[in-house]
Structure formats: C-alpha cells, structure tokens
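Structural prep section.
Before we set up the soaks we want a predicted structure of the protein with magnesium ion in place, mainly to decide which crystallisation condition to try first. Input record follows.
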Amino acid sequence: MTGDAWLGAAPQETLGYLLLDFNAYFASVEQQLDKNLRGRPVAVVPLMADSTCCIAASYEAKAFGVTTGVGVAQARRLCPELVLIEARHAVYVEFHQRALKVIDQVVPLQEVLSIDEMRCALPARWQSPSRARQIGVQLKEAICDELGACMRTSVGIAPNGLLAKLASEMQKPDGLVILQAQDLPAKIAALPAQRLSGIGPRMAQRLAAYGVHSIGQLWQLNPAQMRIIWGGVAGLDFYDRLRGLERRLPARERQSITHSHVLPPHERTLAGALGVLDRLMQKAAMRLRKENLLATAMYLGVRMVDRHKWSAEIRFAATNSTPALLATLRDLWDKDFLMLAQQKRQPLKVGIGLFGLRQPHQTTADLFEQPTTRPDVAAVLDRLNQRFGKNTVYFGSAHHSRDSAPMRIAFNRIPDIETEA
Ligand SMILES: [Mg+2]
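Run finished without errors. Recording the tokens verbatim:
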C-alpha cells in the first residue's frame, strides 16, 4: 500500500454509522428508579467511604463541578446537597440488556462498546440525512418510552465509526448530531485533537510537538506527515478515517475462531452433538482459509442438560484443511467424549475453537500431508460454496446437521455473510 492510493481515495458520502451513548448512565438509572432523586444532584460511588470517588454524576451534580473521578470529600465541598448512592451493578446490567433489545428493534445493533455505548449500522435506505435524523429521534424516543424518561442519550450519526463517536460527544445531554462528509472539517475543526478516539494523551503530546492541537490542524497534515507522526501505516489509516472513510487495516489480529450452538431437542444425543460439532468445524475451517490462516490447536466443549461441562484440547501441526481438522475432531471426540455414553448424559450445547493461529509464512508445510488434505481441494470446495450457495458441497459427516447452527449475531462480532450458514 502506498501513500498515492490514499490520496486518490474518494470521499465517503453515506451515513452508515450510528453511535448511541447514554448520558450519565449509572446516575440516570438511579434517578429513573427513584422519583425522589430526579432533578437532584446525584453521584454514584463504588462504596460508601470518604476515600472513594464518583463513578457517575447526574447533570444536576455536574453543574456543581462534580464529575466522574472527583473524590467524595471534594464532591461534597463542591455540592453540599449531593446525594451519594452506592453502585448497583446488577441493576445497571439489567437496564443495559433491556436497552440492547429496544435498540435492536429500531436499528440493527452492530457492536456493544461498553455498558452505556452502542454502535449501530444504518441500512442503505436510511442513510439520507433527513431519514437518518428521523431514525435517531425514533431511537431516542423508543429508549425513553421503554426504559423511562430519565434514560437520555446522545446520538451521533456519521460515515464511519470514528466520526459517529465524535458526533455523539458533541452535544450532551440529549444530543443528536449528524456529521456528513461535506461538513468536514468545518464542524469539527475547533475541537481538540484529543476528542478523537484513538488519540490518547501520548499521541496528543506527539501531535503537539508538531504544532497540532486542534482537529482543524490535524486535518491540514498530508498522509506522508501522518505516517511519520504515527510511525507507520496507522497514520494513513487515521488520515482516511478522519475524512469519513472506512478502516482499511484489520482492526487487530485474530486470536481464535470459535463457534457454538445450542442443540435443538431432536439433536440432543451424542451422535447429534458430534454432527453439529462437525458442521461448526467446517465453518471454522472455511473461515480460516478465507483469512489465510492456519490453526495449531483445537478446543471442543459440550455442555449437558444437567449443566455438567466437558471440554478437551489438542495441539497439532499447522493446518487449515477441513479433512485434517475433522479427523482431529474425531480423534479428540473418541478419546475424551465417548465415555459420556456410559453416563447417559444429554448434551445441550456444543462449541469448537481453533487457536494458535498462524499465517502461512510463519510455519513450514507438513511434508507428509496426505493428498486428500491438500489445501487446493478445500479451496475448490470454498469457491463452490461461495458461488452456488452454502452447503452446496460439504463433507459427508455433517450431512444430517447441515441446517443446524444458523447465523446469529454475537454482541462482539459482526456476522460474515459469506461464511455464516
Ligand atoms: Mg455515557
């Protein structure tokens, strides 16, 4: 990748990202649950002690200068009427779960960033500024209707995640800010560079040494300069994202590939469990090859209806061949799981994981690899499946369970349409 490719990049005009941030989340939940706290300065503390500090403050408290991180003694001096509340994490988690349901009914949830911050993907038909604004309003209203009027949020909508996050922080509380590519950099130029996520205190210091303090000044830098300041292509990536483009670098290197599945009642037998494990392994192997990775360790887990758990792990020579991985799965199963038959336990959920992932250049090929496990066979199968639909070609062992393990959305992972069945 060269700097020229970056200079030639077209600006992103779509509004594909919506970031929702709850205002003063813990304090708002407390005010929602106790009418007497509404309109009053409230601070949530981890425990009742003078030595501790506030982990959240209501906007009434913030008006007195009581913010997250302020010590309790000082907070009391700043605001003598401050009401201190001991944190109730289980309650905040419960509100969080309810919030996720409400959000996902309005706009597809993409990633949960923290207990009070979620990112959503706006479908193409909702990406005009007027429609995106309507969706934002609708989302904020749905949350107030379902969770309560104290649960205010700030919403940011922008062409990418970096700008959506910035937009969500530009108006608090109860904000709704849309940043379009055409607004850039005018709408954000005056903000300190450190308001951008990814620019922490150390990077801010580095930027300051180059005379860059505001986002406007950061905008003036060319890709080559950003590359030097960031010490690599991450600077080019930031240059792009500041302009609303999508991230081009992989977010981070993948550590493992895992899949799990709750067995439908008719498959809650050992044979059923093995069939689904087989199918999950084929999916994982396909994903390995798609990402051009090899695995060197495998994990199998089975949870029983009676909540007992069994798991086993094995290491092996680096491979991404489906037959090799399936053979290893069978060995592991025969060795560690067949005794479950004697115990007459009923499996409920199965999971597989591939670990110790390597890139091909980090490993040497197995000289004695059997012809049937050669990667090119697998590549042909992958291409057939991608071209003609899932499960066009698959290994016979998974035949009876090919409709199991359907696509699902995990909180921390965006499903990949190509490899998810
Ligand atoms: Mg917040």
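Observations: The chain has four domains: 17-23+93-183, 25-90, 186-242, 257-401.
Flagged for discussion at group meeting.
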